[in-house]
Write a structure and sequence with these properties.
Blueprint (H helix, E strand, L loop, with lengths): L1 H20 L6 H23 L3 H22 L3
Length: 78
């Protein structure tokens, strides 16, 4: 499931950009984002099965996503 999520997260934005612009371009940022979303989606699904309170799950998911995105965006620019 994680491999399938990574593949979908990697190819869907690339295909849409390819259709719009007519050029196929694969970047390291695209690969990084695909790995992040491909791993994060199954993890959030697993966490959602264990947490009974919906509000707590939403807050936890937003904190995890925000923390990882901030870390990856700033870690590669310094």
């Amino acid at each position: 499931m994680i491999i399938f999520s990574i593949i979908l997260a990697f190819f869907i934005p690339i295909v849409f950009e390819w259709i719009q612009s007519g050029t196929l371009e694969i970047t390291s940022a695209g690969i990084r984002d695909a790995l992040f979303f491909g791993i994060m989606v199954p993890v959030l699904i697993l966490i959602s099965k264990n947490i009974k309170n919906d509000y707590l799950f939403v807050i936890l998911a937003l904190v995890i996503i925000f923390a990882v995105l901030v870390f990856t965006r700033f870690a590669f620019h310094f």
